[in-house]
Amino acid sequence: MSQISRDEVAHLARLARLALTDEELDSYASQLDAILEHVSRIQAVDVTGIEATDNPLTSVNVTRPDTVEPGLSQREALSQAPASAEGRFAVPRILGEPE
């Protein structure tokens, strides 16, 4: 027994603003019917006594601990720069910006 008709597929296509040919309507109707049949077979499975599982993995949010480590001083950071000005990295102007 078909769970979805060709007319229902045509209605859905109109709602989605899809222009489907007669062949496409027939094809999609049979494909959607097969999908609905599989879903109904899955829904018919007896799962009494089976615990629901949303995630089979037991490890959650595995991250390393945050540790504070000293960074470079301004002088150390600028010591290897090709050019610096007023305590900052100096780079060439871009996009015609004024100096």
Automatic annotation (TrEMBL):
The keyword Nucleotide-binding applies. Residues 57-99 are annotated as: Disordered. It comes from the Bacteria. It holds the Pfam family GatC. The keyword ATP-binding applies. Gene3D superfamilies: Glu-tRNAGln amidotransferase C subunit, N-terminal domain. PANTHER family: GLUTAMYL-TRNA(GLN) AMIDOTRANSFERASE SUBUNIT C, MITOCHONDRIAL. HAMAP family: GatC. Heterotrimer of A, B and C subunits. This is Aspartyl/glutamyl-tRNA(Asn/Gln) amidotransferase subunit C. It comes from Mycolicibacterium agri (Mycobacterium agri).
